[in-house]
Design a protein that fits this description.
Butyryl-Coa Dehydrogenase, subunit A, domain 1, four-stranded antiparallel beta sheet, single chain, Butyryl-CoA Dehydrogenase, subunit A, domain 3, alpha+beta, binds flavin-adenine dinucleotide, three-stranded mixed beta sheet, 3 domains
Length: 383
């Protein structure tokens, strides 16, 4: 039995009923579109309108802002079910953007954007990374210069998930001095925004249904009231404060994909014959699958424990860093081991295991690389 079926204290009956609703919706309404979205390189924004109408886009937003006032666990359940069906992480960045606004926005900003983010009228992206700056975010160069009651934004971003399909962006900009204290977050509605341009949709190793784009800002004029929180220099603190939740948004899909990979490999090797027997019956296969199933259990247990601590308010950042690097590394390892058991078929894009393998690679890079996670953990060890 795979760990998905094991109940954890945070999984009460209500949340499991919600999971079932999401699962059915994803299977019926989203999974059939996935092949076409992979070929075209993006999921149309309109797809998320009915998803929002079902209450699946931002269930954790307060009712006053268009959500159901649910806990963050509900959003993680949505991400779990999406990942299980190979849906990419487009709605994960959407929820992160919404939480920046919820936690740091003025009342007017919350009223303006949150209900439209919850309904799917707006799809959000987060634009932090620049061509010359990724891990070392405090060195970012996109500049927002104050001009009366506006800011004028100039610069470029790259690798932005939803960069092509989003119509709202939370953009990290430099409003002041060099270093982290000069960083602010700007919120832009990008449709027909003068000076804003989406560059290339980047071709990737995996995650083909998810659009990842370059963005250009050439003299974009933004009302000062759209600076998140309206106070300059708070951006870095705002970005850092959400990190434990953001890490969980990557760890839950890692757990889901690991379980799926093991299921696929068990099914395949039981059917496939070589040397007159099922591939499953070779001792090597049995041992590999036993190892992968063990990792699936340990990853899921670790993730469940982190979720419980997050809900209790006791998830320390270091535990979240540990979970991020370790769970995503196990995802890479398990998808690789399971692919091997498929032989040549494992390399064919039409086989889900090939896609799980390719899609997994980026998990160790985005949301903070494995090396950055380890560095942060080591800093804490040093006291
Ligand atoms: C598919 C995809 C989607 C993405 N989506 C988004 C998005 O929506 N929004 C967004 O803003 N960004 C996004 N990113 C960008 C992503 O967050 C960055 O790629 C990531 O943070 C790494 O930055 P970098 O690529 O500049 O690598 P670099 O920072 O240049 O790192 C290169 C290598 O050096 C290592 N390294 C760097 N610093 C250290 C250190 N101090 N110690 C040890 N090793 C170090 C890194 O671990 C890495 O191995 C996305 C990236 C991809 C591939």
């Amino acid at each position: 039995m795979l760990p998905r079926l094991l109940r954890h204290p945070w999984m009460d009956d209500d949340i499991e009923a919600f999971r079932e609703q999401v699962r059915r919706y994803v299977e019926r309404e989203l999974a059939p579109g996935l092949d076409g979205w992979r070929r075209q390189g993006f999921i149309p924004r309109e797809v998320w309108r009915p998803f929002g109408a079902m209450g699946f886009l931002l269930p954790e937003m307060p009712e006053a802002h268009g959500g159901a006032g649910a806990t963050l666990a509900y959003q993680l359940v949505v991400q779990d079910e999406l990942a299980k069906s190979e849906m990419p992480a487009n709605t994960a960045v959407h929820t992160i953007a919404a939480h920046y606004i919820l936690d740091y926005g003025t009342e007017a900003q919350k009223r303006r954007w949150l209900p439209r983010l919850a309904s799917g009228e707006l799809l959000a992206g987060i634009a932090l990374t620049e061509p010359g700056v990724g891990s070392d975010l405090k060195a970012l160069r996109t500049r927002a210069r104050r001009d009366g009651d506006h800011y004028v934004i100039d610069g470029a971003k790259t690798f932005i998930t939803n960069g092509f399909s989003a119509n709202l962006l939370v953009v990290a900009v430099r409003t002041g001095e060099a270093g982290s204290r000069g960083v602010s977050l700007a919120v832009l509605e990008t449709e027909d925004l003068p000076g804003f341009r989406v560059g290339r949709r980047l071709e990737k190793l995996g995650q083909h249904a998810s659009d990842t784009a370059e963005l250009f800002f050439d003299g974009v004029r933004m009302p000062a009231a759209q600076l998140l929180g309206e106070k300059e220099g708070e951006g870095f603190v705002q970005l850092m404060s959400q990190l434990p939740y953001e890490r969980m948004l990557l760890c839950v899909p890692a757990a889901a994909v690991i379980e799926r990979a093991v299921e696929l490999a068990v099914d395949y090797t039981r059917e496939r014959k070589a040397f007159g027997q099922a591939v499953f019956d070779f001792q090597n296969t049995r041992f590999k699958l036993a190892e992968c199933a063990t990792l699936a259990h340990v990853v899921r247990s670790f993730v469940n424990d982190c979720i419980q601590r997050m809900l209790n308010g006791t998830l320390d950042p270091e535990a979240a860093y540990m979970a991020k690097w370790w769970c995503t590394e196990q995802q890479g390892k398990v998808t690789d081991e399971c692919l091997q058991l498929f032989g040549g078929y494992g390399y064919m894009a039409e086989y889900p295991i090939a896609r799980l393998y390719a899609d997994a690679r980026v998990q160790r890079i985005y949301g903070g690389t494995t090396e950055i996670m380890k560095d942060l953990i080591a800093r804490k060890l040093a006291g």
